[in-house]
Amino acid sequence: GAGGFIGSGLRFAVTVWVQRIFSHSQFPYGTLTVNAVGCLLIGYLAGVAELRGLLDPYTRVFLVVGILGGFTTFSAYAFETLALAQEAQYLKAALNTVLQVIIGLAMAWLGFSAARLI
């Protein structure tokens, strides 16, 4: 629970910060950013845990399920994509879906790969 609290607070802070940077756009860059960063970190931590054995099971659950589970947000992504579609912004809705999946998978792979190098 404490990890989820930390992750959710970080998600809010990062999302607000990124959306301020892109205030001219209705595209949900904040959610895309937290999901990409979260996927990168989850991939890295999974790699560190699996390849190096550096994280005990409790620390891994606290970091991955708690903090990063609270930080990333599939539900916000789904809601924002639905809102774009309901506003007839179909290209943005489709782009958000494609980017969330491709960037999320790429970042998880990059994080896991980085764990092999360190």
Beta content? under 5%
Along the chain, the helix and strand elements come as HHHHH
Major sheet, described briefly? none
The number of helical elements comes to 5
Helix content: over 70%
Find the count of extended strands (DSSP E, 2+ residues). 0
Structural class: mainly alpha
Rg, Cα atoms, Å: 15 Å
What kind of oligomer do you see?
single chain
Global mean pLDDT: 91
What is the distance, rounded to the nearest whole angstrom, between the alpha carbons of the first and last residues?
30 Å
Poorly predicted residue ranges: none
Overall shape: elongated
Question: What's the short story on this structure?
Answer:
The protein is mostly helical.
Q: How would you describe what is shown here?
A:
The chain has 118 residues and is mainly alpha-helical. It contains 5 helices and no strands. Helix 2 runs antiparallel to helix 3, helix 2 (29-52) packs parallel to helix 5 (90-117) and helix 4 runs antiparallel to helix 5 (90-117). The longest helix has 28 residues, at 90-117. The protein starts with a helix and ends with a helix.
Which keywords apply here?
single chain, 118 residues, mainly alpha
Strand and helix layout:
Blueprint: H1 2-21, H2 29-52, H3 57-71, H4 74-86, H5 90-117
Helix pairs in contact: 1-2, 1-3, 2-3, 2-5, 4-5
